[in-house]
């Protein structure tokens, strides 16, 4: 499913009565099966852009076109699980059509099998994020939006989850939009990278990655990273220590 | 165990006080128990208790369902809040007696008037509590439900209602105690049966044992309902919360 975004502007009214530009004109499109990555400094307006694309914020200029019947799977920055429903119920409520076999497979891949009947309050952040991923994939989305799904996780876990995301994305045709601070995640997962400026956000550079995801070796990834445009000041490319939870 | 102990202490204090004050003003527990048994065996106690209970249930259900719906609407829709707020303040501060007397004057000394008057007294507090609960709803979960295209009813049942449950429980708890108090006044003023009516008779005759027999049986019923219905509901509504150690 093709996702077309053409935002010509978005302003917030602040409490003092003035207006503040959050987004400059931004235009891009993603084809089915493609993973687009938005990379930009904290507070540049990425989350606002996502809210517009998801249809949560309709107060903007421009247009977002996605097929009306497109199913959306979303992983929010915070897991946003229902604390009063079990892990399994959380997934099933968002994806009522999911089969038992599909659910079992997702829980196996994400290592959530023993946590099916737990409540979200009993889970660590890493586990809760995995439940959020399971929920997003259980709906068999046409459009998948991931808002820093790996932020504030330790290296090993983030690496494993990243591989799982790659495997899940490869398993079905889905248009994916990933927001991240980590160049490493961007280069390993993305097909096209969009570098954003500080607020008001606009696209500074669009970098396509030619090598298919599964064929990217560590050396190739390092080479791609080396060839990327200079980042905005204050950004530390790809260092996990430099991850920023915004 | 501790509850039984505190109940025994209550009885002991009552008994000692009765010895000092004298049977006419404060009859001893056995004297009151005697009246209770007599009224129970004649069936009058159950008749009056039943009548009061039926009024409480009807008025309570009416006020809770209407109040919850209006409160939710006022919490969600700004216009409804603006329009309803002055009425709400008026209702909140209107003395129960005024509502009851006016209801009897306008609708006659009827059952409907009594139940409506009781319900109107409880209505504003239910609205206020549920409005507060609705305002405190987590917007981020609403967004989640909207992104995942949850149908309205499913989102209401699984996303909204569990967040409102503690407010509904609080409103039920405070509302029930309010209804218990007001129902007796309504009965005293214009009903030919019920605990309030009996207390009115006892007052006219200065029959303290009878007065205590009825009010204590009534209190016991309140206590049982509170423990058997309200508290389990509250516990169920909050069972997902991590318990305090």
Task: Describe the 3D structure.
- The complex is a heterodimer of chains A (246) and B (245).
- By secondary structure, chain A is of the alpha/beta class.
- In chain A, 30% of the residues lie in helices and 23% in strands.
- A 6-stranded mixed β-sheet of chain A has the order 6-7-8-4-9-10, sandwiched between helices. In chain A, strands 1, 2, 3 and 5 form a 4-stranded antiparallel β-sheet that branches.
- In chain A, strand 9 and strand 10 form a beta hairpin.
- Chain A starts with a strand and ends in a 20-residue tail after the last helix.
- The C terminus of chain A is likely disordered.
- Chain B has 245 residues and is mainly α.
- Helices cover 85% and strands 0% of the residues of chain B.
- The two termini of chain B are 21 Å apart.
- The mean pLDDT of chain B is 90.
- At the A-B interface, strand 6 and helix 2 of A face helix 7 and helix 8 of B.
Descriptive tags:
heterodimer, A: 246 residues, 6-stranded mixed sheet, 4-stranded antiparallel sheet, disordered C terminus, B: 245 residues, globular
Task: Summarize it.
With 246 residues, chain A is an alpha/beta fold. In chain A, 30% of the residues lie in helices and 23% in strands. Chain A contains 7 helices and 10 strands.
Largest sheet of chain A: 6 strands, mixed
**Fraction of helical residues of chain A:** 25-40%
Main pleated-sheet profile of chain B = none
Give, in order, the helices and strands of chain B.
HHHHHHHHHH
Task: Compute the number of strand runs of chain B.
Answer: 0
Oligomer: heterodimer
Question: Count of DSSP helices of chain B?
Answer: 10
The percentage of residues in β strands of chain A lies in 15-25%
The tally of strands of chain A reads 10
What is the string of helix and strand elements of chain A? EEEEHEEHHHEHEHEEH
> Roughly how many Å apart are the termini of chain A?
29 Å
Stretches of chain A where pLDDT falls below 50 for ≥5 residues? Answer: 232-246
Largest interface, Cβ cutoff 8 Å: A-B, 25 and 16 residues
